Amino acid sequence: MFARVVAPDMPGFGGADKPDRFVYTVDGYARHLAGVLDGLGVLRAHLVLHDFGGHWGLAWAADRPDRFASATLVSVGVLRGHRWHSVARIWRTSGLGELALRTSTLPASRLLLQRGTPRGLPRDAVERLYRSLEDPGTQRAVLRLYRATDVAAVSEDLHRRLQGVDRPVLVVWGRHDPYLPVADAERQRETFPGAQVVVLGDSGHWPMLDDPVALEQTVLPFLARVTAGAVVGAGSR
């Protein structure tokens, strides 16, 4: 399989800029992704999405169905009726979210990130995630994004706009995901009736970290079948 792979750090995360004036919403990120793809000359994209990146990428797909070739949804999707998990509820609470991010420690973050991961996570990966959340710009992005997002309303809108768009979809979920229950994996067929659903029995929310071999063995055959152009991944990391 030969493909052009683009894996951008999105504004507010990783090595990307963290501008105060960026619109930290699902629509804001979808517009940014559109600009990235347009700037790179990507005409059709096979989306590989994780976590909040799922909402951003699917919003782009709903805006541009003619350029949407396929989606691989890893621990994310159209989360109809979803209620925010406990960490998100803290981040969405004014004052409490700021305090939680400012006072977090590496041991506490390790315990939090290891939830629902029978295999555990690599220590260096946990430290990278923790260090990224120490950045004031990333903290600002996280708080603005979570506070601006009604995930159930966003998902209903995505469901309405995407349910008639017939594209190959692979759904990959960790059975032990503590943030997004595994029952949501099968529910992706409400929006994507032909979706292939794979549950990884030894994974949590971070399959690319806790069982990368199983994830690779699931995703690559799917992409080999459907790839006809570029592959683009977008996610918060």
TrEMBL record:
InterPro entries linked to this entry: AB_hydrolase_1, AB_hydrolase_fold, AB_hydrolase_sf
Entries under SUPFAM superfamilies matching the protein: alpha/beta-Hydrolases
MF GO annotations: monoacylglycerol lipase activity
Domain AB hydrolase-1: from-to ranges: 3-212
A Pfam family of this chain: Abhydrolase_1
Gene3D superfamilies, A to Z: alpha/beta hydrolase
Domain of life: Bacteria
One record GO biological process: acylglycerol catabolic process
One Gene Ontology cellular component annotation held by this UniProt entry: membrane
Protein name per UniProt: Pimeloyl-ACP methyl ester carboxylesterase
Organism in which the protein naturally occurs: Geodermatophilus obscurus
